[in-house]
Design a protein that fits this description.
CATH class of one domain in chain A: Mainly Alpha
Mean pLDDT of chain A: 85
CATH topology of one domain in chain A: 434 Repressor (Amino-terminal Domain)
Oligomer: heterodimer
CATH architecture of one domain in chain A: Orthogonal Bundle
Largest interface: A-B, 35 and 39 residues
Structural class of chain B: alpha+beta
Number of strands of chain B: 6
Structural class of chain A: mainly alpha
Chain lengths: 110, 133
């Protein structure tokens, strides 16, 4: 393998962005959106519901469901509530989204 | 698994790295978009490069996968990558409009895929890359 990093390289926007504090905040938010999208996708597929059907149940559009699953949008609280009801979300789902253990979850609810 | 940018010796730069300069964005929007792309790439890395739906998927008829990120209301950014010798290689990137109907648009998209396939074949021969930092 030839790593050409010794050559005069172009601007590295990603490396520069990492130095920013706000980048870290955006990264955390993006990771939670990704976890949420994956969790919704897995729950929907497990229930054998199409994006179109989920959109109908939650009174939104198929495009919106697709965007939420692909972690491309900040989902509204009301929409998220409808989705979690439709997909029967449990504590395990939220634990995976926010990356905390179920023990932590129990401690929080006490 | 390392993440690397494919380097094109003819162009003299890495197509994905060049795109990520995102010059048409304000500072804040650029950081937000970069954070989203970075997290998606890292998500793929955590899954050993596998295209985990709905974040990434295989591209039909080609030897690579694509990660989708929304640029704005009507445009999605598609980052094409493949895995080779314990590396996630970021090959190419292009913008795809949501509602494209004309044959011209379709041909443009196919052209992007074909160029990316050429990049993939070239990478296997010359192994030129830059580290993703």
């Amino acid at each position: 393998m030839k790593n050409i990093n010794n050559r005069k390289t172009q601007k590295d926007s990603m490396a520069e962005a990492r130095k920013s504090k706000i980048f870290k905040k955006y990264s955390r938010e993006a990771r939670e959106r990704i976890n949420l999208g994956v969790e919704i996708y897995n729950a929907r597929v497990a229930l054998n519901i199409s994006q179109q059907e989920l959109a109908k149940i939650t009174k939104t559009t198929q495009k919106m469901i697709s965007n939420i699953e692909s972690a491309n949008v900040d989902v509204r609280f009301s929409t998220l509530n409808k989705i979690k009801k439709a997909l029967n979300f449990k504590a395990e789902n939220w634990a995976r989204i926010y990356s905390f253990s179920l023990e932590e979850k129990k401690a929080l609810s006490n | 698994m390392d993440i690397v940018y494919y380097y094109d010796d003819v162009l003299g730069f890495c197509p994905v790295k060049k795109y990520l300069e995102l010059n048409d964005f304000s500072c804040n929007k650029r950081l937000k978009l970069l954070a989203e792309i970075d997290q998606k790439i890292n998500f793929i890395k955590e899954n050993n490069g596998k295209p985990i739906l709905p974040i990434a998927k295989p591209v039909h008829s080609y030897g690579f996968f694509e990660i989708k990120t929304r640029k704005n209301k009507n445009i999605v950014i598609r980052i094409l990558y493949f895995c080779y010798m314990n590396k996630i290689v970021l090959l190419n990137v292009f913008e795809k409009p949501d509602n494209y109907k004309s044959n011209r648009e379709k041909k443009k998209i196919i052209k992007h895929y074909e160029i990316s396939q050429k990049y993939l074949n070239k990478f296997k021969l010359n192994n030129y890359y830059e580290k993703y930092k």
